[in-house]
Amino acid sequence: MVAIRTLCVFCGSSSPADSRYRDTARALGELLAGTGVDLVYGGGRAGLMGEIADAALAAGGRVFGVIPAGPAGRALIQRADTPKDALAVLASARPAAGQQWLTPGER
């Protein structure tokens, strides 16, 4: 069996009224950190993705954000104390022909 080392999460960047979603997002972030699984997510602080990232960071986990280039992306940056190598800024949401995505350890 292959151990999961990194999990990519894509979920809402809004905060739903039902607190069960936020509680579940926080629980996932804590679980990832507690089991040593790195989180890759949309890089923002808002909504459920932000909840997962905040919880993982608070529990000592490693978090890697992926955001679009430009003003919209800069507005999404998680926080100033996130290590600079933990944030990928992309010109496009798709890799160019022949390129592959890199995992955080492959940079």
Structure report:
- The structure is a single chain.
- With 107 residues, the chain is α/β, with parallel strands linked by helices.
- The protein has a single domain, classed as Rossmann fold.
- 30% of the residues lie in helices and 16% in strands.
- It contains three helices and four strands; from the N terminus they run βαβαβαβ.
- It has helices at 19-34, 47-58, 71-74, and strands at 6-8, 38-41, 63-68, 87-90.
* Rg estimate, integer Å: 14 Å
Number of domains: 1
**Range of strand content:** 15-25%
> Rough shape?
globular
Helix and strand element order: EHEHEHE
Going across the biggest sheet, name each strand in turn: 1-2-3-4
Instruction: Indicate the mean pLDDT.
Output: 75
The termini sit apart by 26 Å
Specify the CATH architecture.
Answer: 3-Layer(aba) Sandwich
Give the number of helices. 3
Helical content stands at 25-40%
CATH topology (fold) name: Rossmann fold
Low-pLDDT segments: none
Biggest sheet descriptor? 4 strands, parallel
Regarding CATH, which class? Answer: Alpha Beta
- By secondary-structure content and strand pairing, the structural class works out as alpha/beta
Strand elements, count: 4
